[in-house]
Amino acid sequence: MNNSNVNNLGYIDEELDGSICLVDEINRLKLEKNAVILAHYYQNAEIQDIADFVGDSLALSQKAAQVKADTIVFAGVKFMAETAKILSPASKVLLPDMNAGCSLAESCKYVEFKAFIAKYPDHKVVTYVNTTADIKSLSYICCTSSNAVKVINSIPKGDPIIFAPDRNLGNYLKALSGRDNMIIWDGACHVHEQFSLEKILRLRAEYPKAKFIAHPECPKPILTIADFIGSTQDLLGFVSSDSSTEFIVATESGILHQMVKNEPNKRFIPAPPSSSGCGCNECSYMKLITLKKLYLTLKYELPEVLVDSALIDLARIPIERMLKL
Ligand code: 13P
Ligand code: SF4
Predict the structure, then answer these.
(1) What's the confidence (pLDDT) of residue 276?
(2) Can you tell me which atom of ligand 2 is nearest the CA of 103?
(3) pTM for the whole thing?
(4) How far, CA to CA in Å, does 266 sit from each of 26, 201, 211, 257, 316?
């Protein structure tokens, strides 16, 4: 079987015997095939719980670079699985649903971006890992929300920068670093763009003791009222280290699973999205991964994420530059 056996919707499907225990079957297949499951914090709770490793984008790329498994099953979105393939080309990398894309990665297309950077040949191109492999191949260095400040500060102050694709993270970094020589691509994530300032202010009034914490992919008005801004991993760290017992959380709601696990005696309130748009704070792409798809992916070793070897060689350079930091 190969990728042509994957259905039009981008995943393997078949009717399952009702008596099958998916968790047991996944664990059995993992051992049989020397496979590891890497999952992002935005995955459904049951996927996080069965994964060998759960992390944010940075930790997942570090893990993908170290892992010695024959097969990596990526419970996340396509750019993450591609990054895993670029860093571990000898492993078979599987993504249970090929439609698990990313609105942020989609907002930065190769042809447009190539033409854009050609206008600024003296600029260093810094891209958030939430991009396709071909965008990475045009980059000097990658970053994630966990290390973006470090990455920006590693570039001499006098060197102009193009930052892509997230305008909110870009503007946040620009303000934080005080660099005027930074041009920002106009992309965004549909989940983080959606939080409603008005509803958050109302929630704050309702829970006056709660700290409001936000991911830097949120727009500036949201970040301006935050008590703490940080990547998924930083938000997790903050709710454990801070003495408050209530938190209003503005990022994808999958993270609440780990927050509750780590701090069962604290209260976590998901920040509400505006009612326009999809009206939810879940990433619809992340949530395409289900236990059933994970099981069938392991069983048939499909769909497989393939990246052209010449592209791997190019895209690997900016990712490794980031990991060296
Ligand atoms: P981090 O994992 O770097 O916090 O990024 C959040 C995100 O949107 C991943 O898709
Ligand atoms: Fe992309 Fe946003 Fe979903 Fe992350 S949460 S995968 S940035 S669409």
Answers:
(1) 58
(2) 8
(3) 0.94
(4) 32, 21, 12, 12, 40
